[in-house]
């Protein structure tokens, strides 16, 4: 499933002229713009020399950061905004490019049509077919405003992929798809009669049933929800009950909001991208691991990129994602197991590597909807539940081995990811997993805690794994909250400690997952503590900038790559 863009700035209509043009600054003359651009290119000379997509995006961000430092020069500000938009576009980040262009035209008396014409004259740096259709559509309707095919492509992208209905609806109303054209026209008419409002809601909802792309389906259903909520207040009886049920279903199946990308997260992603091997994996021995655990750590690194709004289709780190996905596919056996043979000799068999790499591959497939990746992801989950899961519902190091909560926790996340991505997975596998979790549950002073294997003792990591899994499998937050609070109290909130001697990233990962899922005050307490601890420990200079050192529990098993990837994913979860 494609994730909503991480930069959320309102996008205005391309063709709307500001009604308060008199309040806007005049566009600087051409010669002044040339001088300002020369200054900018001199300051950022090294960045302008770089050509990779992610480097273009990084340059665009630097330009905006320089702008936001408070430059008073109106000419410089104009050119900084224009250059930022151009580089975001070249990097394939279309949403941020358009948003930056909106920021420019909200400040200056600029001809937005002319600016847009310049922007779309360059093909965006993406292989996303929808984005490329949008760019082609924009080129067409700038010259032929009523072109049906061009308007359809622009409307679909803006409404269903950028969630920008204000700009997209007028385009859909001129588009080549009859049902969407009629629906968009009715939507734009803003009816006040509840029956008409409900009919529009039904129209969008019914059209969503035809849609296979998860992001577009989500956009259509959210639009239906908006109209249902308007209609409900003026409706009674069975018609009202039907709409309430649909609204509840839409809310229950709405994915979480876009991730908040903190500076520490950005720095970690940059380090990971810079230290990825050319074939797409991360070499763990090279960066301090005591064992070759490339499969699991490549999975973790990929997960960090996917959960920060990157995919095979787009994002600043699209290239890193595509390379990592391809490496996992190359190292997938015919039976679906993902495991690099260079990892042979690792201390815990194929259990952890396939589980963690499988989560990442499945989430990558869900994000991109790439047919080959979806096929590989289906093979991965099939192996997990058909070949690796034992009769009691658990997982461990080898196929059918008596389960433990540690290895099983990763497989349980993989199962949830597969269900979310729309892959085929038997409900029996979830039922067995639930039974296995029940066998590990232990009542301690009225609170449910979890053991490693049946009959053993709980500890902080096991408790957080059990709690997170319960929530992933659909438990009510109220049923799990006390257990999470007890685990956090007994295990302690994250703290770096002297030279990192208090670090336990395994515990911090599951604590971040459990608290982010349950929400409330415990999520804030945990998240604040985690951010403080990881900010304190993150390397700030040299080649290690953005990474975390090999300190704390289990750190030598996965080295700097694992430390950095796990910490990055934990930060993303704790920042929801």
How is this structure best described in words?
By secondary structure, the chain is an all-alpha fold. Helices cover 61% and strands 1% of the residues. Strands 1-2 form a two-stranded antiparallel ribbon. A hairpin with a 2-residue loop joins strand 1 and strand 2. The longest helix is centred in the C-terminal third of the chain and has 20 residues. The radius of gyration is 25 Å and the shape is globular. It starts with 29 loop residues before the first helix and ends with a helix. The N terminus is likely disordered.
Radius of gyration of CA atoms, rounded to a whole number: 25 Å
User: Residue-averaged pLDDT, rounded?
Assistant: 91
Count of β-strands:
2
Q: What summary fits the major beta sheet?
A: 2 strands, antiparallel
> Which structural class fits the helix and strand makeup?
mainly alpha
Low-confidence region ranges = 1-22
What is the distance, rounded to the nearest whole angstrom, between the alpha carbons of the first and last residues? 18 Å
Beta-strand content:
under 5%
Query: Can you list the strand order of the major beta sheet?
Result: 1-2
- Pattern of helices and strands: HHHHHHHHHHHHHHHHHHHHEEHHHHH
Shape: globular
Task: Please report the number of helical segments.
Answer: 25
Helix content: 55-70%
Can I get a quick summary?
This protein is mainly α and 576 residues long. The chain has 25 helices and 2 strands.
């Amino acid at each position: 499933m494609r994730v909503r863009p991480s930069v959320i700035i309102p996008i205005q209509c391309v063709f709307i002229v500001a009604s308060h043009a008199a309040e806007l600054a005049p566009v600087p003359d051409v010669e002044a713009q040339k001088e300002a651009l020369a200054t900018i290119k001199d300051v950022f000379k090294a960045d302008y020399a770089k050509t990779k997509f992610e480097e273009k995006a990084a340059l665009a961000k630097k330009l905006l950061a320089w702008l936001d430092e408070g430059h008073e020069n109106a000419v410089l500000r104009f050119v900084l905004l224009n250059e930022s938009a151009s580089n975001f576009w070249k990097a394939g980040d279309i949403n941020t490019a358009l948003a930056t262009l909106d920021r420019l035209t909200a400040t200056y008396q600029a001809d937005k049509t002319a600016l847009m014409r310049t922007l779309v004259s360059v093909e965006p740096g993406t292989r996303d077919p929808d984005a490329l259709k949008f760019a082609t559509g924009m080129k067409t309707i700038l010259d032929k405003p009523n072109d049906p095919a061009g308007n359809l492509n622009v409307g679909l992208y803006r409404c269903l992929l950028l969630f920008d209905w204000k700009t997209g609806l007028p385009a859909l109303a001129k588009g080549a798809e009859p049902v969407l054209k009629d629906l968009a026209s009715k939507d734009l008419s803003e009816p006040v009669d509840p029956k008409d409002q409900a009919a529009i809601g039904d129209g969008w909802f019914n059209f969503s049933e035809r849609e296979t792309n998860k992001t577009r389906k989500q956009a259509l259903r959210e639009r239906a929800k908006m109209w249902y909520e308007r209609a409900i207040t003026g409706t009674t009886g069975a018609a009202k009950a039907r709409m309430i049920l649909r609204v509840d279903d839409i809310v229950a199946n709405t994915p979480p909001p876009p991730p908040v990308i903190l500076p520490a997260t950005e720095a970690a992603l940059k380090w990971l991208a810079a230290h990825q091997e050319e074939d797409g994996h991360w070499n763990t021995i090279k960066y301090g691991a005591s064992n070759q655990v490339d499969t699991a750590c490549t999975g973790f690194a990929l997960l960090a990129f996917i959960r920060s709004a990157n995919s095979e289709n787009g994002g600043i780190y699209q290239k890193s994602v595509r390379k990592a996905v391809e490496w996992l596919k190359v190292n997938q056996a015919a039976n679906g197991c993902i495991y690099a043979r260079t990892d042979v000799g690792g201390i815990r068999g194929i259990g952890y590597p396939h589980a963690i790499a499988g989560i990442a591959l499945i989430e990558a497939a869900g994000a991109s909807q790439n047919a080959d990746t979806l096929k590989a992801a289906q093979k991965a989950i099939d192996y997990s539940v058909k070949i690796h899961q034992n009769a009691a519902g658990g997982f461990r190091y080898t196929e059918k081995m008596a389960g433990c909560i540690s290895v099983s926790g990763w497989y349980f996340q993989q199962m949830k990811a597969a269900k979310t991505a729309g892959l085929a997975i038997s409900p029996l596998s979830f039922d067995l997993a639930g039974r296995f979790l029940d066998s590990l549950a232990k009542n301690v002073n009225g609170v449910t805690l979890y053991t490693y294997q049946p009959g053993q003792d709980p500890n902080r990591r096991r408790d957080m794994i059990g709690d997170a899994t319960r929530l992933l499998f659909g438990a009510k937050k109220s049923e799990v909250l006390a257990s999470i609070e007890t685990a956090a109290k007994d295990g302690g909130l994250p703290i770096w400690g002297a030279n990192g001697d208090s670090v336990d990233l395994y515990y911090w990962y599951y604590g971040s997952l459990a608290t982010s899922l349950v929400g409330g005050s415990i999520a804030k307490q945990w998240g604040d503590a985690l951010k403080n601890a990881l900010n304190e420990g993150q390397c700030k200079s040299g080649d290690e900038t953005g990474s975390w050192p090999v300190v704390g529990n289990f750190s030598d098993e996965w080295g700097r790559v694992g430390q950095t990837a796990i910490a990055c994913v934990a930060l993303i979860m704790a920042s929801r």
